[in-house]
Design a protein that fits this description.
The complex is a heterodimer of chains A (245) and B (57).
Chain A: H1 2-36, H2 49-77, H3 80-112, H4 120-141, H5 145-159, H6 162-172, H7 191-241
Chain B: H1 3-56
The chains are: A mainly alpha (245), B mainly alpha (57).
Chain lengths: 245, 57
């Protein structure tokens, strides 16, 4: 009992530390985006969207990668914790991919002259978003917990194919989307821009870890409540069916 | 819309979505707490009933 309490308080300390670190990192990233990173010569201030846009895209990819790994973990070990991880990570991935799509559209309007164009990277990103929305719908449609977890694990593994497809879309096909790693046309990256991007990536990764942890704790609490309810029901049945002494 | 407006709108979207996610987790947590409280009340009442039945016997 005491060990559980000590472990619980340690867990809370970890949560507080993680939340504090991600908060500090987010404010540092924001400060660097607006005060440290230089104004881009061609696009002007709107280029500053790029730092959080790339960071949220990175977290979207990473979250779906975690879902894929958790799906494999579930199929191999059959433990509920893998399913909880996969479900929680998909929720994070969907939120961050939504950010990527919306911030990308806001960047594209002044730079490309349109909010949206059906070019490969954008189209695949939208399809990816829809595929993971369908993951949530699939989960909601299956009642049996084990069947739901198994189907979701397989779906999460197969759906991950959209991540490398999206990553390589700007290298395999003709596209107007800028490639920040390979350089080329689009924009010139200075060292200050790279520092800002790296800090943004770290901040978003910490934010993802904090939110993922919260979401997983919530799902574990839902499971614990369901177990408790089942136990109460069985005790109630025992009490009502017991013959009088 | 000026370039700066697009920039501010993009960062506003980021914060709105982040807080929406945190709020949705918080709201579900609150619902869970209410269910736990209801379950505890139910258990307390059942316990009292069982105790009464035993003392009657």
């Amino acid at each position: 009992m005491r060990e559980d309490a000590v472990r619980g308080s340690r867990r809370d300390v970890l949560g507080v530390v993680l939340a504090g670190l991600s908060g500090v990192a987010m404010f540092a990233a924001l400060g660097m985006v607006f005060l440290y990173a230089p104004r881009e010569a061609t696009m002007g201030d709107v280029q500053r969207i790029f730092y959080f846009h790339v960071a949220s895209a990175w977290i979207g990819f990473f979250a779906f990668f975690v879902t894929c790994l958790a799906g494999i973990g579930y199929l191999v070990q059959g433990e509920r914790r893998w399913d909880v991880l996969a479900l929680s990570s998909v929720e994070m991935g969907l939120t961050f991919t939504t950010m990527t799509l919306l911030t990308g559209a806001l960047w594209a309007r002044p730079v490309w002259g349109t909010y949206w164009t059906w070019e490969p990277r954008l189209t695949i990103s939208l399809v990816q978003w829809l595929i993971y929305v369908a993951y949530r719908m699939l989960r909601a449609a299956i009642e049996a917990p084990e069947r739901r977890a198994r189907f979701a694990a397989v779906y999460g593994i197969v759906a991950f194919v959209t991540v490398p497809l999206s990553w390589f879309a700007i290298r395999w096909w003709r596209t107007i989307h800028p490639d920040i790693l390979m350089g080329g046309e689009g924009m010139a990256i200075t060292p200050r821009m790279v520092h800002t991007l790296v800090v943004s990536l770290v901040a978003f990764t910490l934010l993802y870890a904090t939110l993922l942890r919260l979401r997983m704790q919530l799902e574990c609490a839902v499971d614990a409540l369901a177990r408790l309810q089942a136990r109460v029901e069985s005790l109630r049945d025992q009490l009502t069916s017991r013959p009088p002494d | 819309m000026s370039n700066l407006a697009y920039l501010l709108f993009a960062y506003a979207i980021f914060w709105v979505l982040t807080f929406a996610l945190v709020f949705s987790i918080w709201a579900r947590q609150r619902r869970l707490e209410r269910e736990i409280a209801a379950l505890a009340d139910c258990l307390r009442e059942e316990g009292r009933d069982v105790h009464l039945r035993r003392t009657e016997r």
